[in-house]
Every structure is written in structure tokens, then in C-alpha cells.
């Protein structure tokens, strides 16, 4: 079954019909691998992808360290998604990626399916998690149903975003044009995901960087995402992982600030606030400092 809940820094997509790429990804530095049964698989190869993915998971040696294994199912086709879940060895799956997630009712449905399948297989331990991609349709971004996603769910681990499917809904090419329209759309969805994840109390997972050869652009994306508050990001190639991990790690300035805050708290345990470099620091800042130091491996 899945490990105790941690926050992966990286989620690496792998096509569900490629055993070779799965084997390579499993030995990479990715914290989590997404075995994809949806968009990276041609419609004629869906059945083959499910077979290859199930075989890969069944062959996994649970005694050896490995990344978390997640599976993206064809959730926009509920009957297909349920059949996929029923065929997967959930004992080896940390979580399910729910694409085109647009309402709490869809979360509940996925949760009920997983309840039944875990009972069927007598799975004990941490429940199979869910990560939802919540910007792939207009209805998943605005309206009453979209707002229900702020309620979260016991299985929910995080929300992520993307603009490829949304661009198709809007009837526009998902590429940079003569203006900054493509960037503006991406930034608005990125901010929407960040706030929705915070409201639901789950991880905010930044979207992919499509040009896996441009590591300089990836580093800039990671800097921007980190400063917004993202701690995780999706990837499409193992070559992106080192840059991604370095870019999402707390910066030296943030760590130095967090250490100063912790020192003040330790020296003055009964104080509600402090002055630090001319700024007030109080309980919300104490909490952020603790999270930064935890991510930096300083848990003392």
C-alpha cells in the first residue's frame, strides 16, 4: 500500500503503455511517478496501457525503495475509469490522478470506488490518495460545482493545473502568440490552483514545463512557483528532475529567515510576536518558518 503521506517534490509522467519508460522512471530521482492511462496514450492502445501498467505494478518489489506510484485514469469516462481502477493492483498504488476534476461529487464518487476496491482486496494501511487536475474545463474553474472543491476530501492529497485541455475548450492554440495572452492564461490558472489547494488544505502541485530541453526556463518557472508557495511540480522527462528539485527547495534567504524566527521563538516561548528586521513576526510566520525548515531537512 502507499507510504505514509509525504509531499513529493516531483511527479514524473510516464506513458502507461511503455514498460521501458516505466523501468527507467523507477530508477530516476523522481519522488512520484504517474503511470498515465489518459492523454499520453493513443485511444487504440488504452487496453494495452492498462495491461502494461498493471503488470509493472504487480512486478514491483515492495521491499526495495522506489518512488510513489500514481496512476492517471480516464476519469472523464466514468465507466472506463472504474474498469481501470478495478484492474489495478491498488496495494502497489499510492494514489490516483483525477483529470478534469470539476466538482466535489466527482471526488466522492472516486472515493467510494476506492473504498469498495480496497475492501475487495483486503488492503490495510494508508488509503489510496487522490490528486485532482482542476483547470481543464471552464466549469472546473468557475461556478457552484467548482467551488465545492474547496471542501477537500479525506483521500485528497493535492490539486494541480494545466492549460492544454482548457485551451481546446477556449478554441485557442496552446502556444505563445504575438501578445502575452498564453502567459496570462497560465498565470491565472496557476494562481487559481494555488488558492483552491490552500482552501482545501492540500498540496499545490505546479504544472509541467513542456519543453524538457530548456532547463533554464524550467529553473525560472520553479523560482516563480516556489515564491508563490508551490512545493511540488509535475515533470515529463527525467532530465528535468535535478533542476526541479533544486528550484523548489527553500532558498538560502528563506532558510536564514526561518532560522532567525525559530531562534526567537525558542528564546521567548511565551511571546506572541517579535520584531525581525523591522517587520512584525507572529504565529502565521512561526508556522511558515517551521514548514520551511522541515522542507530543508532541519526538523530540530
Explained architecture:
The chain is of the alpha/beta class. It has helices spanning 19-26, 46-58, 78-87, 104-120, 144-147, 164-170, 181-200, 215-228, 241-248, 252-267, 283-295, and strands at residues 10-15, 32-36, 68-72, 95-98, 129-133, 156-160, 203-206, 232-235, 274-276, 279-281. It has an 8-stranded parallel beta barrel, surrounded by 5 helices. The protein has a two-stranded antiparallel ribbon with strand order 9-10. Strand 7, helix 8 and strand 8 (232-235) form a beta-alpha-beta unit. Helix 8 packs parallel to helix 9 (241-248) and helix 10 crosses helix 11 (283-295). The chain is globular, with a radius of gyration of 20 Å. The mean pLDDT is 93.
Secondary structure elements and pairings:
Layout (H helix, E strand, L loop, with lengths): L9 E6 L3 H8 L5 E5 L9 H13 L9 E5 L5 H10 L7 E4 L5 H17 L8 E5 L10 H4 L8 E5 L3 H7 L10 H20 L2 E4 L8 H14 L3 E4 L5 H8 L3 H16 L6 E3 L2 E3 L1 H13 L5
Parallel strand pairs: 1-2, 1-8, 2-3, 3-4, 4-5, 5-6, 6-7, 7-8
Antiparallel strand pairs: 9-10
Helix pairs in contact: 8-9, 10-11
The termini sit apart by: 30 Å
Beta strand %: 5-15%
Radius of gyration, in angstroms, nearest whole number: 20 Å
What is the number of E strands?
10
Average pLDDT for all residues: 93
Spans of at least 5 consecutive residues with low confidence: none
- Helix fraction, binned, reads 40-55%
Number of discrete helical segments: 11
Structural class: alpha/beta
Largest sheet: 8 strands, parallel, barrel
- Principal-axes shape call: globular
Multimeric status of the protein: single chain
Encode the helix/strand succession as letters: EHEHEHEHEHEHHEHEHHEEH
Biggest sheet: strand arrangement: 1-2-3-4-5-6-7-8
Amino acid at each position: 500500500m502507499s507510504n505514509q503521506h509525504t509531499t513529493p517534490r516531483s511527479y514524473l509522467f510516464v506513458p502507461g503503455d511503455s514498460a521501458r519508460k516505466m523501468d527507467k522512471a523507477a530508477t530516476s530521482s523522481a519522488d512520484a511517478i504517474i503511470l498515465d492511462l489518459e492523454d499520453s496514450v493513443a485511444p487504440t492502445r488504452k487496453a494495452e496501457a492498462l495491461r502494461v501498467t498493471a503488470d509493472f505494478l504487480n512486478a514491483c518489489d515492495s521491499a526495495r525503495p522506489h518512488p510513489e506510484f500514481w496512476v492517471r485514469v480516464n476519469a472523464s469516462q466514468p465507466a472506463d475509469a472504474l474498469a481501470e481502477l478495478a484492474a489495478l493492483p491498488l496495494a502497489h498504488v499510492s494514489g490516483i490522478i483525477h483529470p478534469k476534476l470539476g466538482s466535489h461529487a466527482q471526488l466522492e464518487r472516486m472515493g467510494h470506488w476506492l473504498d469498495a476496491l480496497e475492501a475487495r482486496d483486503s488492503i490495510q494501511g494508508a488509503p489510496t490518495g487522490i490528486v485532482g487536475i482542476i483547470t481543464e474545463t471552464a466549469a472546473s474553474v468557475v461556478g457552484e460545482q467548482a467551488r465545492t472543491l474547496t471542501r477537500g476530501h479525506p483521500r485528497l492529497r493535492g490539486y494541480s493545473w494545466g492549460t492544454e485541455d482548457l485551451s481546446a475548450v477556449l478554441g485557442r492554440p496552446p502556444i505563445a502568440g504575438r501578445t502575452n495572452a498564453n502567459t496570462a492564461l497560465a498565470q491565472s490558472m496557476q494562481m487559481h490552483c494555488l488558492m483552491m489547494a490552500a482552501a482545501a488544505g492540500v498540496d499545490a502541485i505546479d504544472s509541467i514545463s513542456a519543453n524538457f530541453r530548456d532547463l533554464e526556463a524550467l529553473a525560472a518557472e520553479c523560482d516563480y512557483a516556489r515564491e508563490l508557495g508551490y512545493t511540488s511540480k509535475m515533470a515529463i522527462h527525467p532530465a528535468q528532475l535535478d533542476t526541479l528539485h533544486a528550484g523548489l527547495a527553500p532558498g538560502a534567504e528563506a532558510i536564514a529567515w526561518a532560522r532567525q524566527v525559530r531562534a526567537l521563538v525558542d528564546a521567548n516561548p511565551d511571546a506572541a510576536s517579535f520584531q525581525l528586521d523591522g517587520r512584525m513576526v507572529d504565529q502565521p510566520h512561526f508556522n511558515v518558518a517551521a514548514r520551511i525548515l522541515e522542507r530543508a531537512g532541519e526538523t530540530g
